[in-house]
Write a structure and sequence with these properties.
alpha+beta, 4-stranded antiparallel beta sheet, 14 helices, globular
Length: 766
């Protein structure tokens, strides 16, 4: 059978299985952040898209550019977020939860190899005549360099920034630029022990406000001297692709950087970003104007001047609600691309379901809405969330990948409108699909510029502290024994991951349930309260977001810290009372059910301990985060946090070191083995180590109650099986007939089929 016929057979087989797979798919909501998730082949004949929730690479024919036709769906790793086209027959897909690259052979319609990369990979590009792949690792703060022929890592380049993510290659291939996702804005916090007294409340009925910290600029000489905050501000890093090292960095580009592209004529770098206004104190002053949505332009040269384009230029933020602003507002510009001449640019507005079309200088010429919420209309439950763009070489059609609806919009640029929307198969439960819009929809704000996700980026954090107090507000829980003052001081943005099981929220435990956050929509965003049923749907959705696994392994130091955490008494200063850490941090997430006297000088809850490894302040000896540990982020290390004399009894340095190791390695709800993949070709099937590796994978997965799926193509047949431990075999999904596969027989058959390839991937428990 020739390659063309074999590919057709595979495509038909995948199509027949599609409905069964959708019904049987294991779904876990990680809200992984897509980057370059949509690409067009150089000849314009193929469109490639990652299908993040279904864990697929989608291949479409563009023989009719107005009407993409699905050719192939290839199962890849868990949560694919980015792709890079190596050549006409090979695409590399980056998997955020599997921490891997799936090398897709387009002729055979299979994953031919799986390459493990760093934890939470963010983006992938090719450089040096496609001989090198560059992959960012967000939590490891580095870029992996992989030789594309050997598929081996040849270098690991350290990046002094918080969550290096999006990548771009220079036109000459000599440079790769790395955008730091949580780059910060040169702000930090001075703790309540050092800060001056807060200003007087404007509500005369309020008591004196408690001592509280203050957010300051690290460029302020007074506070720099007191806080000794030597904070690096590396927003975009430039890698020399020959020497494989960072040559230079660029600062003050923005706070949250989404994507970047080089202008094809001027060579300037254009970076889409938001700039946080957390330096502004108090919620009423921030109402409706929490961030600025921008493009920053600069020449990639030393001491380059920056040009900042406000995507909502001229907007009067004092007018709330502002229906005119909602018609054209841009929120969270997640992607930017250019036409071949550079005369036009295209920018997504993830928050308001539109694309802005720019001239060569960056001035907005027009807008195109995608989906159903045109203009100021709101349709939150069916929000699209345009995330990535691809332009057809003929430049008549623009393709938009919508992350939230898992669809592709086709925009005809001559007509200036969406002409078609292609839905991809999606195992996401309906309540999640509809509920997530309330997190990301900026049209729920008074002017369309801000959503909950402006700070809780992709359901996570922005790495900043905000002072959302209100000098004119009222006491929380007034009439109780310990009412809370509305002037609360700076508090870190908390992640929305791992909230299931908690019943009180916020650092001060002042929100009894997630529906109590409804006031954020009018008070901070300048919009209107959600209806009760909408807020409940939103709250249920928030409980669905999960952490990926913690990459830090359990060491002897970790084990010792765990023992101290669970058994050591007299750690906390609570009068004559004695506590173990676990007495307050009692839930599986590390959170507690009650508030207690906290490190900010006010009552705080026992916050969850997952994800602390993502809040590290230092990369080597370089401080890259302005906010670290504690409710206000004023502690630079957990070691310092545990040594706070105002809260804890004295702990030995060795005990603090052990506790720090345990807390940084605190397990998430996702076992470390989830996402691990083994890919086997016919050449490897007879290797004895192959059988041993598979057996170990199956045993480890079963031990933590995870599912192993077998996918691939064998003898021209598409395999989609699940491992059944009791039978020690693989059973076909969606097939009522007995089609189980024995591992030894499977490998024997594989060894005689040169065109075959199979992958085994560990999934979380259904």
């Amino acid at each position: 059978m020739n390659i063309r016929c074999r590919l057709l057979v595979v495509a038909v087989a995948y199509a027949l299985l599609a409905n069964a797979l959708k019904a049987e798919s294991t779904f876990a909501n990680y809200e992984s952040p897509q980057t370059h998730s949509l690409k067009i082949s150089q000849d314009g004949r193929r469109l490639y898209a990652v299908n993040t929730p279904a864990n697929l690479l989608m291949v479409y024919s563009l023989e009719q550019p107005n009407s993409p036709k699905l050719l192939l769906e290839v199962p890849v790793g868990i949560e694919p977020i980015s792709l890079a086209i190596r050549n006409a027959t090979e695409v590399w897909v980056l998997n955020h939860i599997s921490d891997s690259i799936s090398v897709v052979d387009l002729d055979r319609g299979v994953v031919s190899a799986t390459i493990q990369v760093g934890d939470r990979p963010g983006d992938i590009v090719f450089a040096k005549q496609q001989q090198r792949a560059f992959v960012s690792s967000m939590t490891e703060r580095c870029v992996y360099v992989i030789d594309t022929d050997s598929q081996k890592t040849v270098s690991k380049i350290s990046i002094a920034g918080n969550n290096p993510r999006s990548l771009a290659v220079s036109q000459d291939g000599e440079k790769v630029w790395v955008a730091i996702h949580h780059s910060g804005n040169q702000t930090t916090v001075v703790s309540h022990h050092q800060a001056p007294d807060p200003p007087q409340a404007t509500n005369v009925d309020l008591p004196v406000a408690p001592k509280q910290g203050v957010i300051v600029s690290t460029n302020d000489k007074l506070w720099r001297k007191q806080d000794q905050a030597q904070l690096a501000d590396h927003d975009v890093m430039e890698i020399d692709t020959n020497q494989l090292k960072v040559r230079r960095s660029f600062s003050t580009v923005g706070t949250i950087l989404f994507n970047l592209a080089q202008h094809p004529q001027t060579g300037d770098l254009w970076v889409t970003n938001t700039e946080a206004r957390n330096f502004v104190r108090f919620e009423p002053a921030l109402r409706g104007h929490v961030v600025d949505n921008r493009i920053t332009i600069f020449k990639p040269e030393p001491d380059a001047d920056l040009v900042v384009l406000d995507l909502n230029e001229g907007l009067d933020y004092s007018i709330l609600p502002n229906m005119a602003a909602l018609e054209t507002a841009m929120a969270q510009p997640t992607d930017i691309i250019f036409n071949q001449s550079g005369s036009r640019g295209f920018v997504t507005s993830f928050g308001t379901d539109r694309v802005a079309i720019l001239d060569g200088a960056g001035k907005i010429q027009s807008y195109v809405d995608v989906g159903d919420s045109v203009g100021a209309n709101v349709n939150t439950r069916f929000k699209r969330g345009p995330r990535a763009l691809a332009l057809h070489p003929q430049e008549q059609n623009l393709y938009v990948l919508n992350r939230l609806s898992n669809s592709i919009s086709i925009v005809n640029l001559e007509q200036g409108m969406q002409i078609r929307e292609v839905e991809m198969q999606d195992p996401t439960p309906e309540e999640v699909r509809q509920g997530r819009g309330y997190l990301f929809d900026a049209k729920l704000s008074g002017n369309g510029t801000v959503s909950c996700a402006s700070c809780h980026i992709d359901g996570d954090r922005d790495g900043l502290a905000w002072d959302l107090g209100d000098p004119g507000g009222d006491l929380f829980n007034d009439g109780s024994a310990n009412p809370l003052h509305p002037m609360k001081g700076p508090l870190m943005t908390q992640t929305l991951r791992g909230l299931a099981g908690d019943r009180i929220f916020h650092w001060r435990a002042d929100r009894p349930g997630l529906i109590a956050f409804n006031g954020t929509f009018p008070n901070l965003m300048g919009g209107a309260l959600l209806a009760d049923e909408d807020m409940q749907l939103f709250a249920d959705y928030m409980k669905s977001i999960l952490f990926g696994s913690n990459p830090l392994v359990e060491t002897a130091e970790f084990k010792r810290g765990e023992e101290i955490f669970n058994s050591r008494m007299a750690i906390a200063k609570e009068g004559k009372n004695q506590f173990r850490c676990v007495d307050c941090h009692k839930r599986i997430s590390g959170s507690g059910s009650t508030g207690f006297s906290g490190l900010i000088g006010q009552s705080t809850k026992a916050a969850q301990l997952r994800g602390l490894n993502e809040r590290l302040v230092f990369q080597g000896d370089i401080r890259v985060n302005g906010f670290g540990f504690g409710a206000d982020g004023s502690k630079q290390t957990l070691f310092e946090f545990l040594g706070d004399s105002h809260r804890f009894e004295k702990i030995s340095s060795q005990d603090k070191k052990s506790l720090e190791a345990f807390l940084l390695g605190f397990p998430t709800e996702t076992p470390p083995i989830v996402g691990k993949t083994i890919t086997i070709s016919s050449e490897q099937a007879n290797d004895a180590t192959c059988l041993l590796a598979i057996t170990a994978l199956l045993e480890d997965a079963v031990a933590v109650d995870c599912e192993v799926k077998l996918m691939g193509v064998l003898n021209g047949n598409v395999l989609k099986h699940t491992y059944i431990a009791d039978a020690n075999s693989f059973s076909a999904i969606g097939n009522t007939e007995d089609s189980s596969l024995n591992l030894e027989e499977l490998l024997e058959t594989l060894s005689s089929d040169d065109s075959a390839s199979i992958s085994l991937t560990v999934y979380p428990k259904p």
